[in-house]
Amino acid sequence: MDKNGSLMDKSPNLKNKVLFLKDSTYSGHFNATLNSMAIRQAQIPIEMNGKIKGYILAAMSSESSNSVLLTLRNILLISYFMMLLGLYFVSRFIARRSVFPVKKMTQTVTRITKNNLNERVELPNNKDELFELTDSFNGLLKRIENAMQREKQFKSDASHELLTPLATLRGTLEVLIRKPRTQNEYEEKISYSLTEIDRLSTMLEQLLKLARLDSENSQQINKTANLFTIIDESLSLLKDQIAAKNLFIDLKFDSEQPHLVPLNYASLIIDNVLSNAVKYSKNKGTIKIRIEADDQLLECSITDEGVGVNDEDLKHIFNHFFRSNALNHKEIKGNGLGLSIAKKSADTIGARLNIDSEINKGTTVKIIFNL
């Protein structure tokens, strides 16, 4: 075409068709149509001496390219929705696999009651967060099971220990009323009955102390007192028993500086440990009390020269109603609750009780307080 758009020559392939001249200043490629057929057209100006003399127009059909693009678009759309559908099912499968251990744990937890606390949740194969959760839950179940077993044993032991003095009292009184007795016999039986009543009262008092330790709040811990004062008051309460056995108290502190400890709980610990030391000491023996402290810990050790405890019994020394070799020491009165109270008091305030003992040589109890 010339610069005015008049046709100068054309390819026979065009027949009676004419390509479109887009713009007299345009040079390049563009999309167009030729008799409703999509084409890709090129327009190149012909210049001579810097002036445009005409244009070369060339075109080729773009329908095959458009067909390929359309097919590609359809494939991508179909692939997109298929991928979405596939991702949905894969994600659902993975999610179900992931929550299966949780569902299994839920089913196990639902089955667990106080009658089958020995059942445990199966640990997952992978040691991930769910594994740690399951392991922690199994640990909780074990602690609950142990607590329930101790409670059951405690109830059984308490029932037995309470029934024993009641049965003794009943038997004594029944024998007493069968026939007339002398005044001395009445006095002897009544005195024995009063002893059993005192024993029963002491046991009930200690059981109430154990129950109160479970219900007391943190305000009880906040009440503090000097450990020296607590030991002195405890020794004053035991002065008659100490004098009766002619015991020597060897008391030494590393300094006169006051060391504050929780009043109520420390008193329970010291009272019960010192009471045992006096009770199981031999006549004319020595009880050593030592107190040492640093910046973090306060240690009070109480050592007696008594009958001692064997290694096997030391494992059960803090159990309710447990008494080591009770049949061999019938003359030593007790119900096996003192060290249970001391241990529970220590646990409440974060203190520790360590016991070392040797048969016929004595026992050392170390009470370690956190400052």
How would you summarize what this structure contains?
The protein is rod-shaped, with a radius of gyration of 48 Å. The protein has nine helices and ten strands. By secondary structure, it is an alpha+beta fold.
> Which fold name fills CATH's third level, the topology of the largest domain?
Heat Shock Protein 90
N-to-C span: 106 Å
DSSP summary: helix tally: 9
Mean pLDDT: 82
Shape: rod-shaped
Spans of at least 5 consecutive residues with low confidence? none
What's the story with the biggest beta sheet?
5 strands, mixed
Query: Structural class, from helix and strand content?
Result: alpha+beta
- Count of discrete structural domains: 3
User: What is the level-2 CATH architecture name of the largest domain?
Assistant: 2-Layer Sandwich
Write out the CATH superfamily name of the largest domain: Histidine kinase-like ATPase, C-terminal domain
How many β-strand stretches? 10
Strand fraction: 15-25%
CATH class of the largest domain: Alpha Beta
Characteristic terms for this protein:
alpha+beta; 5-stranded mixed beta sheet; 20% strand; 3 domains; Heat Shock Protein 90; 371 residues; 50% helix; 3-stranded antiparallel beta sheet; Helix Hairpins
Describe the structure in your own words.
It contains 9 helices and 10 strands. With 371 residues, it is of the alpha+beta class. A 5-stranded mixed sheet has the order 5-7-8-10-9, covered by helices on one side.
Could you outline the blueprint of secondary structure elements for this entry?
Layout (H helix, E strand, L loop, with lengths): L27 E7 L2 E12 L2 E11 L1 H49 L17 H48 L6 H33 L2 H5 L1 E3 H11 L1 H6 L3 E6 L6 E3 H18 L5 E8 L3 E7 L7 H4 L23 H12 L2 E7 L3 E9 L1
Parallel strand pairs: 5-7
Antiparallel strand pairs: 1-2, 2-3, 4-6, 7-8, 8-10, 9-10
